[in-house]
Amino acid sequence: MKNLNELTLLEALEGLKRREFSSIDLTKSCLSRIKKIDKKIKAFVTITEEEALKSAAEADEVIGKEGAIIFETKPLLGIPYACKDNFSTKGIKTTASSNVLKNYVPPFESTVTRKLKEAGTVLLGKTNMDAFAHGSSTETSDFFETRNPWDLKKVPGGSSGGSAVAVSSDMCIFATGSETAGSIRGPAAWCGVTGLKPTYGRVSRYGVIAMASSTDSPGPIAKTVNDAAYILNIIAGKDPLDATSSPKQVINYLLKSEEFNLKGIRIGKPKSYFEIELEEGVREKVDEATEKLKSLGAEIVDIDLISPKYSIAVYTILQRSEVSSNLARLDGIRYGNDRTNFGFEAKKRIMLGTYSLSAGYYDAFYEKAQKVRTLIINDFNEAFKNVDVLAAPTMPCVALNLGESDKSAMFGELMDVLTEPSSVAGLPGVSIPCGLSSGMPVGIQFIGNHFDESKIIGVSKVFQENTNFCKLKPKI
């Protein structure tokens, strides 16, 4: 029998509804796991044990009084989760893993964490990340490196590395992440879990410490795509506090996926995504995964898309420009420590972004990047006239050794090359595990058209129901 902390979200909810165990039992199981292994992998910046046990006791009291019917209004009641440390949590330290904010305690709640709180969740703590989400390895945290539970000498990916590690090693039932280009899907792939990046604007950015405002997308990191769909139901929707959030109606993503059938579904394999330098084991596992989907009824179609390598320059200019604007607010008066506390990566990005936006260079760099961004968006629009979803590797290789990121000033952009095009286009994407190469997880990503989360969730669900890759766990 599984330990309680090893349960999926839907399994944990079923157990709580049937009173097979309490929220206190579930929360203590997660906290025990954190105490046992987190000193080795360092997923958490802050652990909120006292608050978690109090919330769990309150959840048990409500379940005791109301019974299973309470889950209709509080769909995550008693579920312990981990939160990436760039989501503002009222009264709980929120650092974005940066020395600038190391003592910052927000006086307000982000929309995502407020919705999760109202749904009844139990917050276990805040997870480590690349400082201000600047990175793809969780090595640029100003506090400490997070390690991959599959191999402690390797990185977990980033910037949501702490969240992916917490889910992969069963220290929580699910976690929140945020993606600007690959920061949910990348660590999910390298840690062997499911990471869902919604359409830009599907989930409110309010209270998430901004990196690049035109691509930042909060989303769930979970043990299965069904769990991720269930969480998306709760956190998606229009938010009056975020003008970029979409008024489009939220559908029941979990229910839609249960009705999903691969028959008649056209899955596009972009040739250019397989022509870049891929690790052979990654290529092999992704090809096997698409063949599996074909055997389950999908039609696999080779298609032409603009090479993802062109998105590197576009994303770099746009992201750096928005970083320089967003970090300008951190002046040491309102948020604590002054600007001398910025790490090297933040300083680099501020300088390049300020340069790109300066008089005489704006037209040559920023404006041109926006034009190429439009070409990428139009290219995707054309593709989705012929296919339902796109399938590609999430990352070009499996998790790399600690320290590899120091060898390239563009490490993050090169690692995220396969997720950057869909991010700059604002498209939804999900990464799910599709096997192991050299003992490390490989992720396949499915990309959908705007607000077509139900299709990428549906394809992922069929794949996970007919394979065992999402059940593979690191031995730690």
Automatic annotation (TrEMBL):
Alphabetical list of Gene3D superfamilies matching this protein: Amidase signature (AS) domain
Any one GO molecular-function label of the UniProt entry: glutaminyl-tRNA synthase (glutamine-hydrolyzing) activity
Catalytic residues (UniProt): 84 (charge relay system), 159 (charge relay system), 183 (acyl-ester intermediate)
Enzyme kind, highest EC tier: ligase
EC identifiers of the protein: 6.3.5.7
Classification via Pfam families: Amidase
Catalytic activity: L-glutamyl-tRNA(Gln) + L-glutamine + ATP + H2O = L-glutaminyl-tRNA(Gln) + L-glutamate + ADP + phosphate + H(+)
Keywords: ATP-binding, Ligase, Nucleotide-binding, Protein biosynthesis, Transferase
GO BP term, pick one: translation
Domain (Amidase) ranges: 25-456
GO CC annotation, single: glutamyl-tRNA(Gln) amidotransferase complex
Domain of life according to the entry: Bacteria
Assembly and binders: Heterotrimer of A, B and C subunits.
Matching HAMAP family: GatA
PANTHER family membership: GLUTAMYL-TRNA(GLN) AMIDOTRANSFERASE SUBUNIT A (PTHR11895:SF151), TRANSAMIDASE (PTHR11895)
Family recorded in the similarity comment: Belongs to the amidase family. GatA subfamily.
Role description: Allows the formation of correctly charged Gln-tRNA(Gln) through the transamidation of misacylated Glu-tRNA(Gln) in organisms which lack glutaminyl-tRNA synthetase. The reaction takes place in the presence of glutamine and ATP through an activated gamma-phospho-Glu-tRNA(Gln).
Protein name: Glutamyl-tRNA(Gln) amidotransferase subunit A
Organism: candidate division WWE3 bacterium
